[in-house]
Design brief:
Layout: E1 3-13, E2 16-28, E3 32-36, H1 43-50, E4 59-63, E5 72-75, H2 87-95, H3 105-117, H4 133-145, E6 151-155, H5 163-180, E7 183-187, H6 191-197, E8 200-205, E9 208-214, H7 215-218, H8 221-228, E10 230-236, E11 242-249
Helix pairs in contact: 2-4
Length: 250
């Protein structure tokens, strides 16, 4: 099973350190980890560093008990829109990255299944430039998942989705991670989503890791006061699910 570890990971833009000393013990396949923190804290930079899109100190270690290629897929916040391609073409292009251009019937069938599972099969032959922001986020997710990644980095993947679709997508990602043994790291602003869907949580603040561990141990009244500058409580609903209740800004 795949495992991911970060050891003193950092990143710089020019001479400016924007991320430093992030360390996370082994994350195992099947787990979903929330990356949380204020705006401009360094969450997107951390994802780019893990995906080797930018350089910096420290080690990103990906290990696996099985031989074969190891894939890290990064789903950025801004998915953009290429008006030339249809949804289906864009997902097919992602599926063929790093391989030959011969397309097998099973690859087309896999795309069909994925678009149907995400409930965007009706968009298959529409141009990307015609889509709403939420629809483009779902297409971006399909582009990442069709590559069968061992590690999936999702940067605010539900920011443009309505509440119904947010829950659908997070349910789907959680189930897919467990089924396929995939490691998912997901940047979230909705802390109640983190409490519901993520076993582990990492807090990034001012370019540094402020906390890391089990989600219920990390998202606390003290952390919310110190990092988010809010007066808040952690309450439990009638079904025992923890919820963040915000009383006001500090």
């Amino acid at each position: 099973m795949v495992a991911l570890a970060l050891k003193n990971v950092g990143a710089t833009y020019g001479r400016v350190k924007v991320l430093q000393d992030v360390g996370i013990d082994d994350l195992r396949g099947g787990s979903v980890t929330a990356i949380i923190g204020p705006n401009a804290a360094g969450k997107s930079t951390l994802f780019k560093r893990i995906a080797s899109l930018i350089k910096g100190p420290g080690l990103v270690e990906l290990s696996d008990t099985e031989a074969g290629p190891r894939t890290i897929c990064y789903m950025p916040q801004d998915t953009g829109a290429n008006a030339v391609l249809t949804v289906y073409e864009s997902v097919l292009l992602s599926a063929k990255q790093g391989s030959g251009w011969r397309v097998a019937d099973e690859e087309l069938a896999a795309i069909d299944r994925l678009l149907k599972a995400l409930r965007i099969d009706d968009l298959a032959f529409r141009g990307l430039g015609e889509l709403s922001g939420g629809q483009r986020q779902l297409v971006s997710l399909a582009q990442a998942l069709i590559r069968n990644p061992e590690v999936l980095l999702m940067d605010e993947p539900t920011s443009a989705l309505d509440l119904h679709r947010q829950v659908e997508v997070l349910d789907f990602i959680s189930a897919t991670a467990k089924r396929d043994g995939m490691i998912v790291l997901i940047a979230l602003h909705d802390l109640n989503h983190a409490l519901r869907y993520c076993e582990n949580t990492v807090v990034i603040s001012n370019g540094k890791m402020a906390a890391s561990g089990k989600t219920g141990d990390v998202i606390t009244k003290t952390m919310l006061r110190d990092i988010y500058k809010i007066d808040a409580r952690i309450e439990h609903c009638s079904q025992g699910t923890p919820l963040v209740i915000v009383d006001g800004a500090i």
